[in-house]
Amino acid sequence: MRSTPACRGRVLATSHNGPAGARPATVDGRPGEDVRVTTAPLPPDGGTTPEGPARPPLRADALRARLVSPAGPLGRLEVVTESTSTNAELARAVATDPGAWPAPALLVAEHQADGRGRLGRTWTAPPRAALLRSLLVRPDVPRAALGWVPLLAGLATALALRAAAQVDAVVKWPNDVLVPDPSAPRPGADGSGTPSRKVAGILSQVLPDGGVVVGVGLNVSQGRDELAVPGATSLALAGAASTDREVLLVALEEELARVLGRWQRAGGDVRAAGLDSECVELCATIGTRVRVDLVDGRSVHGVATGLAPDGGLVVEHDDGTTSVSRSADVHHLRPGDRAERP
């Protein structure tokens, strides 16, 4: 899909602490972009597509009323019709005018033309079919503790989906959220078991000024043929109780604020906050046989046995040795499987 200029389009929410203003503005701080403020009410729904379900736009005013201070945890909320990458756009906006983005500050896109994942991977989703958001946070914790941010974001995402969508969401270390997909092809020769597939991905980046941008891309209403990769799923395919993106966004932001708040109050100590045990409990990788593809091109096989103090994945290798992975691709394997790296 062809990329479009960054955040070019209609800004649905521009004021971070009240009704939208009357003056033109840009989300990324650069003058001259075709980005205009609007105070017109949003239509009640997005209609239907010829082949797909109704995909209503997000009602920015309603979201601001629920999520922006003093009613909610956010300092600013923006919804744009399209972004090349919400993480990249938010990082650039903060670098251009840090004071305009009081943390926690949220940027949400109805469509993302060039989303970024770990290791430089890109992906796209149909307009209004996914929840695409990036959050600026400035946690008052030691810099060494920031490695826990993607794991805590995964925990919060899984908890929010369990509550709002009533799906058995779990975390795949370090940054994926999986849900059971009863409509997906069954693994194994006997066709038994309900496969769990990726419904959300998380990408966190530390900014030069110490802030952290936490991006979450959540598949909501996509059909099987609309998914970016074969191993993914959506909440609709998983039979979720709700695919209302506003309900899901509110649940996610409130849960993330709760989890990060506990972590910060404990000075970045996940154990003191009681969050390490929660991460372990909802991490499907722990106790699973895995193949770990390391950044140097090597692969190791073994069983993931726990999380290190810095959030790394502890793996007991087949030869009896143990290692901690901090930047790697991890593949869940069936018992006895020694699949080679593709």
Report, as a whole number of angstroms, the end-to-end distance: 26 Å
Specify the overall morphology.
Answer: globular
At the fold tier of CATH, the topology name of the largest domain is BirA Bifunctional Protein, domain 2
As for the number of domains, it is: 2
In terms of structural class, how would the helical and strand content be classed? alpha+beta
What kind of sheet is the major sheet?
7 strands, mixed
Radius of gyration, CA atoms, in whole angstroms: 20 Å
* Element order: H for helix, E for strand: EEHEHEEEEHEEEEHHHEEEEE
CATH superfamily of the largest domain: Bira Bifunctional Protein, Domain 2
Q: Work out the oligomeric state of the chains in this entry.
A: single chain
Please give the number of β-strands: 16
What CATH architecture label of the largest domain applies?
2-Layer Sandwich
In round numbers, the mean pLDDT is 82
